[in-house]
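Please decode residue identities from the backbone states below.
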């Protein structure tokens, strides 16, 4: 898997992922969907690869 996410993109995803998880845990109910999205954001930022970016042809990581 080639990385397609820049550092700023990964940091932003971790922050949003944590916020989504906190909201899901605090509110419960249908908020679990937001919790799943938060987990996905955190996992993709750890790996540095976003499958949706690959499908769309987007890349925030600059080539060296």
């Amino acid at each position: 898997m080639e990385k397609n996410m820049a550092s700023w993109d990964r940091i932003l995803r971790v922050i949003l992922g944590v916020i989504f998880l906190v909201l899901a845990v605090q509110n419960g109910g249908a908020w679990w969907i937001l919790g799943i999205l938060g987990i996905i954001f955190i996992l993709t930022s750890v790996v540095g690869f976003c499958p949706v970016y690959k499908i769309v042809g987007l890349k925030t990581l600059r080539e060296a």
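Observation: Helices lie at 7-27, 32-47, 51-56.
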